[in-house]
Known about the structure:
Blueprint: H1 20-37, H2 39-83, H3 86-100, H4 105-119, H5 123-130, H6 140-155, H7 159-172, H8 176-192, H9 196-209, H10 216-228
Helix pairs in contact: 2-3, 2-4, 3-4, 4-5, 4-6, 5-6, 6-7, 7-8, 8-9, 9-10
Amino acid sequence: MAKKKGSSPSRRPSEPQGTADDAFSARVLEFVAWARQNTQMAIIGVVAIVLLIGGTIYFLTQRSQQYEQAATELEMVQQVAAMSPTPEAVAEIEGYLVRFGGTPYGIEARLLLAEILLEDGNPEAAIETLLETAPSFRNSLRLQATFLLAVAYEDAERWDDAAEVYSALKERGEFTFQRREAGEGLARVLLAQGDTTGATDAFRALLDIEPADSPLRDYFEMRLAELTRGDG
């Protein structure tokens, strides 16, 4: 009796040639071949990156040291200015500004110099000092410089310039006390120009922003009554 032939196992289809590893290896080989052909370019690129990183670190380190020195010397300048006659104080601050005027501490030095010049009755010099920093609303120090610039214009009787800066401060002041200070300055300037209508509007605007329980309301109402007496 013939033996029954056993059924042979089914053959699996052959897997495709090549794998992900092969593809990766091929890309590595391509890169190596490219690098061999472009060795000089690759070296230049690496050197450029190293120099850029090193230069950035050096710049940041130098700037940090400069700021630290500027802060330390500003304290010394403030002490010297407080105890010195005006000419010596001015010279001390001006020397500081030559060295550190480009740092954030330069703004504080300009504020100090402008205050001294205003107290000495030299508003034009104070204006020249402040124009390096103001008008600006970028931060609190620059805002302070802008207020001082308006005062300097007022002291110099440059009424139009003072009114322009006070108006900008009134519009852009973040806090009520800032808008109040600017509004009072604007009212003073308008009165100095003989513009009673504008000054009246300025005092009315001050009443609009002043809280109902503020003691300043009585003063503003009194000034408003003085300006409007006889109207109608």
